[in-house]
Every structure is written in C-alpha cells, then in structure tokens.
Amino acid sequence: MKKFNSMVRSSSKSGTPTPQPASAQTERQTGTKNPFGDESSSENLPSRQFTDLSVSASPAPPAFSSTAPLSNQSSHSTVNVINEKGGSSVATVGSGDENDLLVQRLQAWKHLVKALSAYLSNLADHYSNMAKSLIKVNQSLVTNQVDAQYFLPSHAGGVFDFTEGISAQSKTLSERYAILAKFFSEDIIPNLQSLRKEIKNTVSQYQKNAKDAYSSVNKYQKLIDEEVSKLSKAIDNIFRGQLKNDPWLSKQAIEKNIQKRSGADKAFYETIQSEISKLRSFDISLAERFSKLVYEYTNKIALSILPNDNNSVVFLTQIQNLQPNVEWDAFANKFGSLISQPMGITAEASSVDLNYPHKDNKMIQIVKSGPLERQKGIIKTFTLSNIVITEAGFLHSFPKSDTHMQGDPDTSIYLVRATVEPGSNNTFVVKVPSGYPGKGTNTFRATSQTATTGWINAIQSKIETQHIDQTS
C-alpha cells in the first residue's frame, strides 16, 4: 500500500513534459482529465461521473468510537458515581484512570485506613498528654512538712493514706495512658500505614497493567479510524473523478486492524478479569487485616479503660463475626454490569458483522481474485502472486504468502487507461500509459487458456466500464 501511495504521489508531481500517449489524446477529445493529476483538474469533470457506482456524495459517517466494543457498536452500560468534589462522574472498569471503579474502590480503602490511622495518632497524642498531665496533677497532692506534723504518718491508717491512694491511682492511670499511647504509636498505627502503602502499590500496579492492556485496543482502534477516514476520502474522490487511492486497499487495512483489535479486545478482557481476581483476593485480605487491627484497638481500650463495658463487648463480637468477603461481594454485586464488561468489552468480543462507513459500497468490492504468475525482476521471471481486480478499476499484486491480501501490494495497476492483449502460452499483457500507476508493460501467466480468458475478460470489463463512466 505504501508503494502504491508513493507511486500515486509521484505521478501527480509536475515536471518536464513527456510525450503524450494515445490515452492522453483521448482525454483531450473527451474532456476528461487524468484522475491522478492535481485536484484542480476535477473542476472540468462532468458532475454525473461515477453516479452509477453507488457512491454517496454526502460526508462519510464518523468512525466508531475507540471505546466501543467490537462485539457491540452500541454504547455499553454506564454507572454514575459521586466524585470527591461532590459531583457526578461516569465510572468505568479497566481504564486504569481516576474514573476506574476498581481504582476508586482501592482509593476508598486507602482513605478509610488513613482516617483510622489519623484518629489513632490523635488519640495516642491525647493519651500521651494525659499521662504527662497526671504526673503533674499528682504534685498537687504533696503535703508540706508543717501540715504533716499534725497527722498520722503514711500507712498508719490516717487521712494521709487517702492522698497516697489517690496519688497511686493517678499514677496507675498515667501508666495505662502511656501504655495505650505506645501501643497505638508502635503497633496499630505502623500496621495501618503499612496497609495504606500496600494499597497504594496495588493501585499503581493495577493502573499500569490496565493501561498497558488497553493501549493495544486504542492502538488498533486509532489505525481503524485512520483507515476509515482514508476510505471515506477515497470514496469522495471517486465521486469527484479523482482516483488517487483505491478504496479497496483502505477496506483491507480496516478489516486487518479490526481482526487485530478483536485479538486486543480478547487479551484486554482476559487481563482485566485476571486483575479483578487478584484485587478480590487482596480486598478480602485487606478486610481481614483491617478488622484484626480494629479488634486489637477495641480490645485494648476495653481491657485498659472500659472493663465490663457492654457496648465494647457487643462491638468486639460484631468484629469477630464479620466475614472478610462480604464487602467485596456487595461491591461486585452492585457494579456487576461494569465488572463483567470492562470498557464495554465482553468475553465474546468479535469482529464479525462489525459495521463501518462505506462497508457495503460497491467501489470496495472485488471483481476477480486468485493466484496468477506475474513477470517481475530484471531477468523477467514469472513469480506466483495473489492478484485482485477491484471495482474501482485497479489490479493489485500481492506476494503469494499474503493469502488475505492485507499487506502492501507489490504493484498496483490502474486499469481504466490500460490495454490488455493475449499472449502465447497462457500469458497476457497489460499496458499502462505514463502518468498512471503500473505504467509500462505488465505480463501475467495463468494455468490454462480458460483461466487466461477469464482474467482478460475481467480486466477488459473494468476498462470498458470505467471508460463509459468517465466519458458519458
């Protein structure tokens, strides 16, 4: 295809005048121009040219969206969620960006862990300050020696024993507060921070894997969109009488990339489902470890400060009874439609019956195709090739290995201005005047006289049909 396009571009450049072939004289007589010349030449063409070829003059419809699944061109189900700014945003699964539900789920976990960590940090500071304050408060219970001489000494059963008891109780409280502060700061909070870091790393890894997987989908979709644009332009150029590109080549490129996009969709779907499975396991583990830390905190408070507190007992029982998978299962059930179809792509994603602009246009159809030997090289040897003749009036030759004819053609011949003549030994010659793709003599060989006649008739039909269309 690159060779064909470069040939077309080179043929349209102005240069030193060359002797005009017979076909050029015909152009002057009929008033038609070389469609491979400058676009301005189309102004002299009759407006009815090619109108019998089912080519629409209206603008081509836009290419389908890069976010649409191949298995279904309609928009996939969406869910609106509340964002951090208090507004509403459309959620996705598999995009790996801030709108991805799985990212948002992990971020919500991170915020929850951060909130508890901040609470316990403040609580640890509070208990630490209380422990220090109680030590200072104890100093107010010290009795001076002047007053002490009028009472029984300590531990003698007098009132001084009261102040000693209060002081001892205050000291015990101070120690307990200090122990709680240390327990929170050195045990619970570091574990919560570790969980938060683990969540952050999991988010980063998921985002990378999701974006890497979806990049292939985007890559092939962009190629499809580019070729759809080329196809639409080629069809419009045919309507204007400017056959600068064969739309069939764009159609082949579209279908090749559709197949690749289908494969990318399948790989993406499998990747995201694998990621979802890993995130489910991580989420359950996260819930289990988070519950354990909350239990340790609550139990420590109950034993140290709130012994025999009924609310604490009930709360501890609730924590113990919590099933680690209950939160994930509820999340997966709530957003099941998105999780089962990441970015709208399903397990059955396929390129079958995929529509695109001009898919059914006559000008991208094939007149004849099959294996044929073509004379090539300096020594003019016959080499087996895959040949196709298109409705737009082109003959393309592909290597025999390119059975689907979706690569770049070895050569492209513009048949409209060509002549075809039978030769000996099942050969035939296609001659193309200067200024057109495939200019010069092109020799082909079939396997039988019947096959040769079939190819000649197909070529001749395009020469005659297109001549009639361009001169009528």
From TrEMBL:
Any Pfam family the entry gives: BAR_4
Region Disordered, annotated ranges: 1-77
Entry keywords, A to Z: Phosphoprotein
SMART domains xref list: PH
Biased amino acid composition, Polar residues: 7-33, 42-53
Domain named PH: residues: 365-464
Compositionally biased residues, Low complexity: 54-71
Keyword Phosphoprotein on entry: yes
Cross-referenced SUPFAM superfamilies: BAR/IMD domain-like, PH domain-like
Entries under InterPro entries matching the protein: AH/BAR_dom_sf, BAR_4, PH-like_dom_sf, PH_domain, SLM1/RGC1-like_PH
Keyword Cell inner membrane: no
Listed name of the protein: PH domain-containing protein
Species: Smittium megazygosporum
